[in-house]
Every structure is written in structure tokens, then in C-alpha cells.
Design brief:
The complex is a heterotrimer of chains A (278), B (343) and C (587). Chain B contains 15 helices and 2 strands. Chain B is mainly alpha-helical. Helix content of chain C is 37%, strand content 25%. In chain C, helix 7 crosses helix 21. Classes of the chains: A mainly alpha (278), B mainly alpha (343), C alpha/beta (587). Chains in contact: A-B, A-C, B-C. Chain C: GO terms for molecular function: ATP binding; ATP hydrolysis activity.
């Protein structure tokens, strides 16, 4: 079975991939089709319910069109999520691979650092960091990447440890293969599947984290916004029944994170080599 | 409530934190190793917190005195606190102070950081503990049920539901609950109980319902998946076949044999999940205005009250390390293969 | 004739898979009568295990079953195929019970042994827990567990594999069923332990007049214990008859091939005689030190040729949680060009650890491993690589020794890529040509080079591994249990390829194996290892026909031979040996 076909047998994964594609197109191309004013405020048209004055999803407290805002906020959420997830994956993979392959004292020290990082709840660390550095989009990516690399590091280390003891790696070493060759030709190709699958989950988690930070009011500053910040703005009007300020960004987060998780599960089926050799 | 655990248990391998305790060496050896490991981790945490202190704009002096401090005040503070000394000495004295419980003074609360945390930590532990207990009571049977009914429609839907619940940010979930159960149905208040002590908080149970529920949902989502996966692993084990072959009914096999063996690795995962739970508590406390450590931390972040921020980070991290240690020890005690060394 | 306890009629089992319905059992008929031992033999995929699981209704839900499997319950025959789950629960353990292959995993690790046996009692009898516990102790005693009172309070990990299998048998006996189904009950055990478990099963069955349906791949086990034998192939029973008739005068072609593929057990004379004095025993012969065990004393056909592998007083340690555990103690071995040395021993004897040291994967803590006269442990960089270019390796697990993400051609060419040939890199065309030659040498089509390991069977993968090991025409081949994971007929094929290539290329070979039959058939000299120490060594024919050490004699006598008469003699000889040793120890 080809990889694509195996992926397609997981219906949720296909649904996830389609939902993801739609949301990305919505955020990237949406504003071209449906241009709105997202810089100048219009307090005269604040908090309009959906459908009024040509605003399909209403307006927020500053009079921004809510549908248009959802698009531009999505750009920030997705961009930060993808890049932070990618950064975390790269850093974590390298750290974990080195620790797992070298082993011994180096491994022990490197893993205690990871343990310590994991012991500090990510949100706490992020809040401290965002009081120290002004949160711009670029800064957010770097900071999120730096708190999210720990889990992939742990995962890849375990994977490297296990690949290292497989007979084909032992055979390569018995043939006189150099460490460089063993790592490049056996260890990395056989861990890449785990890395890719985990990267998907990493992006999902990064998108959630951005939302948390923004919701706590410590995220990217206005007029730039993201889905979490929209929710933070909207919560003040929750008791006035302004559901349209809450549901669209909230659902957008849920859908994109779900979709990424579904896709990740589907990818895992594809790269699961064990299932194929049996 | 994100990260620290991949979205899916299979990714991390439920058995991953098993720590190879089944090796010979016995429980005593394992315990010593594990405690040393925990101490090493706490040491690294203290270095990170110390580094953060020095990364503050204007250094620790301004961090403690506030950004409005005059250069004279800063100089006086640095001299008084030994900040003109080599970094290593500074670190050691920071470590010494932290060990004696001296975490500095909050410059907003007119209170020492230790007192501020001491007042609120129990309430956070109460909230987290209640959520955890509620979550485990739901997650364990759900996970086992899914494993027994694997690949049937009900398993499929519960798994999907778990992913949706996992993907829903805690605060969004809280908002939905407020909208539905508080605003809509008027069943529970949207504001959490206030008060100084744990008992005071407990005396207002209605107000606890929504915060506890909000905190529990993501835990249920995560742990029902772990439990499912762990139970599935065990159902595939040979001993299950042996038990069935001697005429044990399937239900008894699950209850008497599989349940206990499946719980063991999940107990260890609880330890790994603690940081995520504390992160979740922060959001819940902020959303429901619950007077715990998370809210303290959040207010401190709003006002750049650095001594409180760093004190909280240190305390929470140490609590996390201790929690993981406890979980690992409990897991080892549950397993006769490691417990053997005790005798 | 005694009453029927199991009657299988026209049993068909198919499994629903992604690739559609796969038939596993195709219309078999079988009867087992009270007190009889019926062996169901066949190779993997023959449907024998599926048949055994169907007896207790333990097949997974993906199985579709037709026909009937009837168990005698009191006076009536009850059909398992149509029975509901609660009826099955009532039958299992009471009317028929089961013993499985893997004693290491067959018991619940977190429940005491006593409770696990007691549970079997309480499943079918309304007795208080204390009574059930007492019964459990009695059952443990009856299966030969020493000190059953305290053992009952222990957990599975505190027992050896053989002891655990005894506990599983105790569970199977708990409710005195008329039938015990044993699925490869001794396959995971060492030969000496296997012999003990077979003795136990034979006694219990005779004592209690229980029937035994024994599923096995091992013809020697069949000869040792069975009254009747049914041979399965491709889901069908191709031959069924009394054990003497089937084993000594097989009617069916398949049975004949199967029997031919079984490596001849070491000569029966070895078993009938106690440790022999027919060979000169140098004085002070008890230890493994000194020159008596120096293999070079014994003159093989290869003596005088170049020594390719030389172990001198090698001790090996491995680390468990910071502690050093000695796996091998001052071992001396030599392998000369063109000779095959068999390194035999039971699990935990250190034979595989020794093999790893020969490959330079493990540095000896004492002594020296010399490859072609140079120490591997001390060689570094280029020198080490040059040294290793002269060594090939084949592992046990045919699934794990090839990188699943590389096409077979690439795996075979890996040594060429690492070392080049004659000091220069090979072009892609040269490499392809060499891979083609190697595939041809191991009797695989050239097209195999472009396919992935998972597209091949176990035997084919082992031959691919052999091709890779021989890519550089090494002077030493280390083969670590290369055929233990394979069926006998496939094993015979792989061994034939190995033998031919050995004759053609003349490499020295260290052949590590627990299978004395294979070693007997294949090797020139043999070294016996026990708990990390060399017990004895010498020309294979000599050591096997006239072992000098008690342990070797026991080991040899434990290997069952597929001839019922000869096997009975071997068994008796073994029992004499063991009891002799016991009384010797008592004295």
C-alpha cells in the first residue's frame, strides 16, 4: 500500500487534512476575497451582532469586522504555531538524538536539563518571559520554541536509544561503519517518522500555547491580534451575551488543533514501520 | 494545559517512564537513584530561575525594586545584597536563601513572597486535587471500557471526543460552561468561592463546580487515552489468555488482572502530567477569579512583580518534581518486581 | 477403546484481514481419547496453533469458524463453536485446559503464584479462599515446585522459566480436566528443562488418565511423549497415525520432507554412556583453566591453517544499573581458516556475549580477542575498520537485522560502501554487479535487490543477511543462532546455503547455537559453555560421541530424537545420568 493510500484509510485524518487546508486558505486568502478595515477603529459600529450592517459575524468592541478579524488573527496564530512547532522540533530532535546516541554521562546531564525544563510549567515560564521581553510575533515564536522543545527531545532520545540497539545498527557497527555513517544512514532515517508525527502534535500544542498566552493578556500586542487575544477581548462581553465574539475564534482554535491531532494520528499509521515488517 | 505530554499517549509510549525498574538492584537502589535524580533536577531548576532573575530588565535589583527605582537605590541594593560579587557566589547565596524559604518581598502585596504563596498554594492544591480526583474517577472506567470495546463505534466516538476535548483551550471550555450552565441554565455561579483558607473555600461547594469541571475535562481527555492504550497493551498479554483458559470470565479477567497492571504505568504518567495541571490551574483561577496561586501569579505578571513571579516558578517546579518522584515511587511499589528489594 | 474427550469435525477457520479472508484451518477431523497423548505437528502457518486455540474457544473475534469442536462433559459432547461465552467460561479449565508457549509472560506479574492457581480452583468450585489456597499449594507440590508453601506467596518474576511453566501446568491441572491442550509448551525452554517438563507432563497424564493434545514443531518432542501424531500443513491434516508408524515410516511426502529436514541428533551412544573415559583425560581436568580445554590440543582437519580468531583468557562484563555482572570468565577459543567452530550453551551461558566480543562490539575486561592476530578492542579508526572488513556477521532475528527502510540491494552493498574493495571505492555499476553475484550465491533472484525486507520470508531474509555478511569475502563469519527463528525445512535450506558457501569461500566460522543437532551436523569442532565458563571443547564428533564432562553428557541426552524407540533409550539414559549426578552430589 502506498503511503497516501494508507493515510486515506484513516477517515478522521482525511477530515483533519481537509479542515486544515480550508482554515489555512481562509486565513491566507480570505482577506483578499473579503477585505476589511483592521487598523482604524470604528467605535460607532462597536459590538454589532452578526448580520447587522453587512458584518456577517458582527463587530467587536472597537468596531472591527469580526469575520475579517478572524482571518488576520488566524494568520498570526497559524504562523506562530507552525514556526514555533518547527523550531521546537529541530532543537528537540538534535538534543534528543545526541543524548540518546552518545549515552552515558552526557545523556544523564542532558536529560536532567530536559526534566528541569519540563518541571517548570510552560505557561508560567512563558508569562515570566513575556514580562521580560516585549512580545512581538518573532519573539513569540522564539520563546514558544524554547519552552516546547523538551517533549520532542525526550521522545527522540528514547527512539534513538531503541534504534541504536537494533540488529541492523549493531551489524553496521560490526562491519566497521563510522558513527557518522551509522547515524546518517540508519538512525536518522529510522527516527524521521517519529519526528514528523511529533512535529504535527507540536504545532497543535504551540497553537494552543499562543492562545493561552494571548488570553492571559501577555501575548502579541494590538493592533496585531490572534485567536487567543480575540477571546481575551471578547470575554468582557460574555455577560452581555456577545457570543459571536467568543465562539468563532474559540471554535477556530478547537478545529485547527483537532485537525492537526487527527492528521498526526493518520501520519503515525503511515510511518509505522513495525506494522509493515511483521 | 498544553505541552509536556504529546497529544497522544502512544506517541510518548505509556510505559516510557517505567525507568527500567524491573532491572535487578531492588527498590532501595531505585529509590536512591530516583531521589538523586530529583535533586539534580531541582538544582537545574534553581539555575534556570536564577538565570531568569538576571535576565530581568536592569538585572535583579530593578526586578526587586521595580522599574521606577533610581540609580542610587539600585546601587545601594546591589551593594547590600552582594550583587557586586561573582555570579557563582551570588547563585550560592540565592540557593541558600531559597532553601531557608526566603523568597524575597513582593513589592505590591506588602507581604513576603513565601507568605503570599503559603496562603494560596493550599487552595490551588485543593482545586487541582479535586479536578484530578474527578478526572481519574471518570477517565479510568472510560479508558478500560474503550479498550474492551476497541475499534467499535463507541470506542471511535469516545476517542474522537477525547481529542476534541484535548484540543479545546481550558479558558474557552470555561467560557462555554459559564455561558451554558451559569448564564443559560443558572445552575452554578460563574465566580469561584473567595476566602483565605481551604475550609472557607470548601464551604461554598456550588462555586467550586465549574472551576473543578473545567480543570477536569482536559485531564479526562488525556488520561482516558492513556488508560485505553495501557489496557489494550495488557489485554494483548499472554497472562490474559492464561486467565481465560482456566475459565475466568472476561469481566473478571479485566477487573482482577488487567486493571491493576494497566493502572501502574498510568500512575507514573500522573507525575509527568503535573506541570500541565498547574498550567491549567492558572487559567482556571484567572477565568473564575479563584484566589489561588495561579491568580497570584497572573496578577504578578500583570504588574511585573518579579519576586512573586520567580518565587511561584520555583515553588511550582519543586512541587512538580516532588510529585513526579512520588508517582514513580508509588508505581514502583505497585510492581512486585521492584518492590522485591524491600524484603 | 477409551472414551472420546475431544472430537473435531470438519473444522474451518478463516481470519478477516485487510487483504480479505485468509484461511488458517481447512476442514480437519481429529479425535482425542481419554489418557492418550496426541501430537499436532507442523511448521509455522500450518494451522496447528489455531486448531489448539479453537478447542477452548479462545480464537480472536476476527476468526470465522465453521464445523464442530466437541468436548466431553460428563456423558455428553458439548460443541465449543456454537457455545455462548458463559458456557465456554464454564468449560474452560474444568473440562479442558491449556498450557502455553511462553512461561515468562503467561503469568500475571502482579499476582502471587498461589492466588493464580487458587483462582483456577475457585472459578469452578464453590470453596472458601483458604481451601482454594491450600489446594493451590498441593498442586504446586504435585508439579514439582520445591517448598510450595513459600513459593505460593511469591510472584512470577522470582521463578525461572522452567518453574513458571510448572506453575502454568498446575493451573491447567487445578480442576482435573479430561483434556489438556499444550501449545508448544517446551519451545521457549532450554533442552535440559524441556526434557524435565516433558517428563512431568508424561507422569501427570499417566497418573490422572488425562488426555493431552500437544502442539509442537519439534519431532523429537513428538517421539518422546506422543502416542499418536497428526501432521498439519497448509491448514489440513495430511497424515494421522500412531507415532511409530508416522515417524519411522511416513506415508505422506510432506511428513518425509519434514523429517528429513530435522538435523540428526548427536549419536545415541553419547546418551547411553555416562561421561566417557574413552578419551584421555589429562590430569587436573576439572577447571576450565590450563591447557586441557585449549581447543588446539584436539586435532581437526583445519589444524595448521591460519588462525583467524583467537580468544585468550577473555572475560566479559556487562553493566546493570551501575553494577558489573560477569558474563564470560577467562574463555579460550580459536577458529582457523576454513573451519567451523560451534559454540553451544543454554540461555545465559554467555555464548552470544562472547560472539559480540569477537565482533569488537564489547571490549574484554580481561584477556584479548585477536582477529587475524590483531586486537580488535585496541584497534582504532582506519586500522579497526580494516580489521572488521575481514569479519561478517549474521544475527538470529531475520526481521531485525536488515534496515526496514533500505532496499535489500542497499543493505547487501553496505559493507562495500563502508570499505570499498581492494582499497578503492566501487562504482555504482560494480556494486550492483557484486550484489547480483551475492544474491545468486544465496539463491535469490537478482530482482530481490530492489525490494524491501518486509517483502521476504524469514528464511529469505536470513539468506540476505548471509549475502551481506559475505560481501567482502571475509575470513571470519560470526553466526549467532542464525536459524533458531526458522522452521526446520527453512533452516535446512539456509544451512545448506551456508555449508556450500563455506566450502567455496573457505572462511572460518564461529557458529553460535543452542541446537546441538545443527551443531553436530555442521561444525568441525565444538566448545561447550556453561554460566560463562568453557566446559569442554574438541572435535565435534569426539565431544558428542564421548563427552568428558557430565554437563555435556546431560546436554546431549536432553536432545530428543524423532525416533520413538531410540528416544526412549535416550530418555532412560538421561534419567540415569541425572540421578547418578544427584546421588553423587548427595554422597
Amino acid at each position: 500500500m502506498t503511503a497516501l493510500r494508507r493515510f486515506a484509510t484513516n477517515k478522521l485524518a482525511v477530515v483533519g487534512a481537509v479542515a486544515l487546508a480550508i482554515l489555512v486558505l481562509f486565513a491566507l486568502l480570505g482577506p483578499l476575497v473579503y477585505p476589511t478595515e483592521q487598523v482604524a477603529t470604528d467605535l460607532g459600529a462597536a459590538n454589532l451582532p452578526p448580520g447587522v450592517d453587512g458584518h456577517p459575524l458582527g463587530t467587536d468592541a472597537l468596531g472591527y469586522d469580526n469575520l475579517g478579524r478572524l482571518m488576520v488573527a488566524g494568520r498570526v496564530s497559524l504562523l506562530v504555531g507552525v514556526l514555533a512547532g518547527a523550531l521546537a522540533t529541530v532543537v528537540g530532535t538534535l538534543w534528543g538524538a545526541v543524548a540518546g546516541y552518545v549515552g552515558g554521562v552526557v545523556d544523564a546531564v542532558m536529560m536532567r536539563v530536559v526534566d528541569a525544563g519540563i518541571a517548570i510549567p510552560a505557561i508560567f515560564l512563558l508569562l515570566v518571559l513575556s514580562t521580560i521581553v516585549r512580545p512581538t510575533v518573532g519573539m513569540m515564536i522564539v520563546v514558544l520554541g524554547m519552552v516546547s522543545w523538551l517533549v520532542p527531545a525526550r521522545l527522540i532520545r528514547a527512539e534513538a536509544l531503541s534504534v541504536r540497539t537494533r540488529d541492523y545498527v549493531v551489524a553496521a557497527r560490526a562491519m566497521g561503519a563510522t558513527h557518522r555513517r551509522t547515524v546518517l544512514s540508519h538512525v536518522i532515517p529510522n527516527t524521521v517518522g517519529t519526528v514528523v508525527v511529533n512535529a504535527t502534535f507540536q504545532v497543535a500544542d504551540a497553537i494552543l500555547l499562543v492562545a493561552y498566552i494571548s488570553f492571559l493578556g501577555m501575548g502579541i500586542q494590538p493592533p496585531t491580534t490572534d485567536w487567543g487575544a480575540m477571546l481575551n477581548d471578547g470575554i468582557n462581553y460574555i455577560y452581555q451575551g456577545a457570543w459571536w465574539l467568543i465562539l468563532p475564534p474559540g471554535l477556530a482554535i478547537v478545529v485547527v488543533v483537532c485537525a492537526l491531532n487527527f492528521v498526526g494520528d493518520g501520519l503515525r499509521d503511515v510511518v509505522d514501520v513495525k506494522g509493515r515488517t511483521a | 494545559m498544553t505541552t509536556a505530554i504529546p497529544a497522544s499517549p502512544a506517541g510518548s509510549g505509556v510505559a516510557a517512564p517505567g525507568l527500567a525498574t524491573s532491572q535487578r538492584g531492588g527498590f532501595g537502589r531505585f529509590l536512591v537513584r530516583r531521589v538523586l535524580q530529583a535533586l539534580a533536577v531541582i538544582l537545574v531548576v534553581s539555575v534556570i530561575v536564577f538565570a531568569l532573575l538576571h535576565a530581568l530588565p536592569g538585572g535583579p535589583a530593578r526586578g526587586v525594586l521595580g522599574q521606577q527605582a533610581t540609580p542610587e537605590q539600585v546601587a545601594a541594593f546591589e551593594a547590600a545584597n552582594g550583587l557586586d560579587q561573582p555570579v557563582v557566589l551570588q547563585y550560592l547565596s540565592f540557593l541558600g536563601r531559597s532553601l531557608t524559604g526566603d523568597l524575597g518581598e513582593s513589592y505590591l502585596l506588602n507581604q513576603s513572597v513565601a507568605d503570599a504563596i503559603g496562603l494560596r498554594l493550599p487552595k490551588t492544591l485543593l482545586l487541582t486535587g479535586l479536578s484530578l480526583v474527578a478526572a481519574v474517577i471518570i477517565a479510568v472506567p472510560v479508558g478500560v471500557y474503550q479498550a474492551v470495546r476497541r475499534n467499535r463505534a463507541v470506542d471511535y466516538w469516545l476517542s474522537t471526543l477525547a481529542i476534541v476535548a484535548y484540543s479545546t483551550p481550558t479558558f474557552f471550555l470555561g467560557m462555554l460552561l459559564i455561558l451554558l450552565l451559569s448564564q443559560g441554565a443558572g445552575l452554578f455561579p460563574a465566580a469561584a468561592p473567595q476566602g483565605n483558607g481551604v475550609l472557607e473555600v470548601l464551604s461554598q461547594p456550588a462555586g467550586l463546580v465549574l472551576p473543578v469541571l473545567t480543570g477536569a475535562v482536559p485531564i479526562v481527555a488525556t488520561f482516558s487515552r492513556y488508560m485505553r492504550s495501557s489496557t489494550l497493551d495488557n489485554l494483548g498479554e499472554d497472562y490474559v489468555r492464561t486467565a481465560r483458559a482456566k475459565g475466568t470470565a472476561y469481566r473478571d479477567v479485566v477487573v482482577r488482572h488487567v486493571l491493576r497492571n494497566s493502572l501502574t504505568p498510568v500512575v507514573a504518567m500522573l507525575g509527568y502530567y503535573l506541570p500541565v495541571m498547574f498550567g491549567g490551574a492558572l487559567v482556571v483561577e484567572q477565568l473564575f477569579n479563584y484566589p489561588g496561586m495561579g491568580l497570584l501569579f497572573w496578577s504578578a505578571a500583570q504588574s511585573s512583580d518579579f519576586p512573586v513571579l520567580l518565587g511561584c516558578v520555583l515553588v511550582i517546579s519543586v512541587a512538580t518534581v516532588m510529585g513526579s518522584l512520588l508517582a514513580d515511587v508509588v508505581q514502583a511499589l505497585l510492581d512486585p518486581r521492584t518492590r522485591g528489594g524491600l524484603r | 477403546m477409551s472414551e472420546v474427550v475431544l472430537r473435531i469435525r470438519d473444522l474451518n477457520v478463516t481470519f478477516a484481514t485487510d487483504a480479505g479472508e485468509v484461511p488458517a484451518v481447512r476442514g480437519i477431523d481429529l479425535e482425542v481419547r481419554r489418557g492418550r497423548v496426541v501430537a499436532l505437528v507442523g511448521e509455522s502457518g500450518s494451522g496447528k496453533s489455531v486448531t489448539s486455540l479453537s478447542v477452548l474457544g479462545l480464537l480472536p473475534s476476527t476468526a470465522r469458524i465453521t464445523g464442530s469442536v466437541a468436548l466431553a462433559d460428563g456423558g455428553t459432547l458439548r460443541d465449543v463453536v456454537t457455545a455462548a461465552e458463559d458456557q465456554l467460561v464454564d468449560l474452560r479449565g474444568r473440562v479442558a485446559s491449556m498450557v502455553f508457549q511462553e512461561p515468562m509472560t503467561a503469568l500475571n506479574p502482579t499476582m502471587t503464584l498461589g492466588d493464580q492457581v487458587a483462582e483456577a480452583v475457585m472459578n469452578h468450585e464453590r470453596v472458601p479462599r483458604a481451601v482454594a489456597r491450600e489446594r493451590a499449594v498441593g498442586l504446586l507440590r504435585s508439579v514439582g515446585i520445591p517448598d510450595p508453601e513459600s513459593r505460593a506467596r511469591q510472584y512470577p518474576h522470582e521463578l525461572s522459566g522452567g518453574q513458571r511453566q510448572r506453575v502454568v501446568i498446575a493451573i491447567a491441572l487445578a480442576c482435573e480436566p479430561r483434556l489438556i491442550v499444550a501449545d508448544e509448551p517446551t519451545t521457549a525452554l532450554d533442552a535440559t528443562v524441556q526434557a524435565e517438563i516433558l517428563d512431568l507432563l508424561r507422569e501427570l497424564v499417566a497418573e490422572r488418565d488425562t488426555a493431552l493434545l500437544l502442539v509442537t514443531h519439534n519431532m523429537g518432542v513428538v517421539a518422546d511423549i506422543a502416542d499418536e501424531v497428526a501432521v498439519m500443513s497448509g491448514g489440513r491434516i495430511v497424515e494421522h497415525g500412531l507415532v511409530e508408524q508416522v515417524l519411522l515410516d511416513p506415508a505422506h511426502e510432506y511428513t518425509r520432507t519434514l523429517l528429513d529436514a530435522v538435523p540428526a541428533a548427536p549419536p545415541a551412544s553419547a546418551a547411553t554412556r555416562a561421561p566417557s573415559l574413552s578419551r584421555p583425560v589429562p590430569t587436573g581436568s576439572t577447571g576450565s583453566t590450563g591447557s586441557i580445554n585449549d581447543p588446539e590440543i584436539s586435532t581437526g582437519s583445519a589444524s595448521g591453517r591460519e588462525v583467524v580468531l583467537d580468544l585468550r583468557g577473555v572475560s566479559l562484563d556487562y553493566r546493570v544499573q551501575g553494577r558489573h555482572v560477569r558474563a564470560v570468565e577467562s574463555l579460550d577459543l580459536t577458529v582457523r581458516a576454513g573451519e567451523m567452530l560451534g559454540l553451544v550453551g543454554e540461555s545465559g551461558s554467555g555464548k552470544s556475549t562472547a560472539g559480540r566480543a569477537c565482533l569488537g562490539l564489547l571490549a574484554p575486561s580481561e584477556g584479548e580477542v585477536l582477529l587475524l592476530g590483531a586486537s580488535v578492542a585496541r584497534a582504532r579508526g582506519r586500522a579497526r575498520r580494516r580489521l572488521l572488513a575481514d569479519v561478517g556477521v549474521v544475527f538470529q532475528d531475520p526481521g531485525g537485522s536488515l534496515d526496514p527502510r533500505k532496499v535489500v540491494g542497499e543493505s547487501i552493498a553496505e559493507p562495500l560502501a563502508i570499505h570499498g574493495r581492494d582499497g578503492r571505492r566501487l562504482s555504482a555499476t560494480e556494486r550492483r554487479a557484486r550484489v547480483g553475484e551475492l544474491l545468486d550465491a544465496v539463491r535469490l533472484p537478482a530482482g530481490a535487490a530492489r525490494r524491501y525486507p518486509h517483502e521476504f520470508s524469514g528464511g529469505q531474509r536470513q539468506r540476505i543477511g548471509l549475502a551481506r555478511a559475505l560481501a567482502l569475502r571475509p575470513r571470519l563469519l560470526v553466526a549467532d543462532e542464525p536459524t533458531s527463528a526458522l522452521d526446520v525445512s527453512v533452516q535446512a535450506e539456509v544451512l545448506q546455503v551456508l555449508r556450500d558457501l563455506h566450502a567455496e569461500l573457505g572462511f572460518g566460522c564461529l557458529f553460535i547455537s543452542h541446537d546441538l543437532g545443527v551443531v553436530h551436523e555442521l561444525t568441525d569442532r565444538v566448545a561447550v559453555l556453561r554460566s560463562g565458563r568453557l566446559v569442554e571443547s574438541g572435535p565435534t564428533a569426539e565431544v558428542f560421541s564421548a563427552p568428558r564432562e557430565q554437563y555435556t553428557a546431560e546436554l546431549l541426552a536432553s536432545v530428543p530424537t524423532p525416533d520413538p524407540g531410540a528416544q526412549r533409550e535416550r530418555r532412560e539414559a538421561r534419567l540415569r545420568l541425572v540421578s547418578g549426578a544427584a546421588s553423587g552430589a548427595a554422597r
